[in-house]
Amino acid sequence: MPVISRLLSIALRVGEIAFAAVVAGIVGSYLHDYRSGSGLPLARFIYIEVVAGLSILLALLWLLPFASGFFHWPIDLILSFAWFAGFGLLVNYVNKTTCGGHTFDWAGITHGGFCGRWKSNEAFSFLSAIFWLVSALVGLWFIHRERSKTAPADDRA
């Protein structure tokens, strides 16, 4: 069974890297083109860029095939919460634009343009949050399974 959990972990880490790279690229492009102003619109994108950068770094480090990678599940859970917060910030931003609409209405993201870019950014940040959450659950399951294997048997017979 360790092979299944290891393969699942690798697949999740690759997905986390890919999703974080997409979000970092879209937000980084926006920050590069940003010319004036300050406050919440800029702060939310800096936050998302930092979370994406940390996600890429940690997923790359934990992609290395060691069993200790499963012991990082608390950090996976924290990053999942950070991604959910970033998703909320993106939803708040997109709903204030002409794109608006429903949060999970991602139809037309392949048409390009402003709305497609930001809706896809929403989608990939949500997927990243889900992947980090599943990574945390896989790590927790692995730890629980390993502890139950090494637990001493109860000798009260």
TrEMBL record:
GO CC list: membrane
MARVEL domain: residues covered: 8-137
Signal peptide feature range: none
Membrane topology term: Multi-pass membrane protein
Localization in the cell: Membrane
InterPro entries tied to this protein: Marvel (IPR008253)
Primary site of residence: membrane
Transmembrane segments: 12-32, 44-63, 75-94, 123-143
Protein name: MARVEL domain-containing protein
Organism (species): Capronia epimyces CBS 606.96
